[in-house]
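Example protein as discussed:

>
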Amino acid sequence: MGMSVGGGGGVKAEPNVTPMIDVMLVLLIIFMITIPQINAGFTAVPPEGQNLKPHPEEDGDQVLGIDDQGRYYLNKQAVRNEDLETLVREIYGKERDDYIMYVKAHKDLQYLKVVDALGVLSRAGVRVAALITEQTPGTESLVESDRIRPGGSQ
């Protein structure tokens, strides 16, 4: 009845890989969910416009993100709203060549909240705040100098 009888009653040397595959699949699913959230930092869909000069984000750029709920993210790290001024003061209190803070706010956020954030940045020592927007899909800048691509081609 389904039982094997016979010689070779020794120990099998074959590993049972089923639990290992189960664990691997669970880890794969966890990483598939968490890695995009870690890379994104926060979700903000900036407003769209035309005639925008491209400025790819560089390593030294300081970016303040504001999501649609008005929560702040300093360099993709969530910060409490009341701690923002102190944290920005720490960054801009040091000797720096530039004092530019890039602000990326969600397009549905009330403009008053963006103005409040700009006021906090100003009190904390930021000299220039640049608002980040996205080029409207299907359009390109009408300003000739904005359409020049790196390497000299247009």
DSSP finds three helices and seven strands in the chain. The longest helix spans residues 18-40.
